[in-house]
Amino acid sequence: MSKTFDLKYLVIAVITLALGACAHTGDQAKLSAPEQVQDQDPYLNMVCARYAQLNKEWDKALRLYTGVDDPLARLEEARIYFILDNNQAAMDKLDVLIEKKDYLDEALGLRMKIYAKMHQWNMALNDAQALLEENPDNPDLKLFIARLRIITADYAGARDLLEKIPTDRKTTMIYYALSKACVGEKSFLCAQKALEAIVSSDRTYKPAYVDLGAIYKMFGQDCK
Fold this sequence. Notes:
Layout: H1 3-31, H2 34-37, H3 42-54, H4 58-65, H5 71-83, H6 87-100, H7 104-117, H8 121-134, H9 139-151, H10 155-163, H11 172-184, H12 188-199, H13 206-218
Helix pairs in contact: 1-3, 3-4, 4-5, 5-6, 5-7, 6-7, 7-8, 8-9, 9-10, 9-11, 10-11, 11-12, 12-13
């Protein structure tokens, strides 16, 4: 029998035992106060909490995470509270993580989404800018920031940020956000070029056709 074969079945056996223990721990967690859950094996709590989280058993996952004294557990608690739309509970966890610089990127990324969901645009923008300093080449983050700038009417700032993204990293959504920033600046030729870049490479994105048709009509051009 090969070592690879042995390792495969060893992993399966460990996972099977862990899941069996999770079922027992989960039943105990339903009946136990948080301080009693904390007395159990923290590593087992972490595995079982993650398993419950993946199965969308939010209450069970939260109870089990309380038994783990680790910043990752606090981050996962914040993610669950975010899903449950309990923004304040999520923020309480994230503020501590950010202050201690534990899982800083993940915590900032989640907190900026919460601020955006709460329409606290400037706070979301502050977190996004801090995150961009650590990840200067992330086009998705730049798109998020550009959208926030468009919402706050900083069209020039959004356009500048998006235009600096290399062409080979520009996606349909980046070009579309760029078109919105250009329209905000009343630079319709800029918007037209961005929309034409979309329709030349992505024929499925219908909003680009609608907006491009409106610009062609404005300029008295035939729709192509």
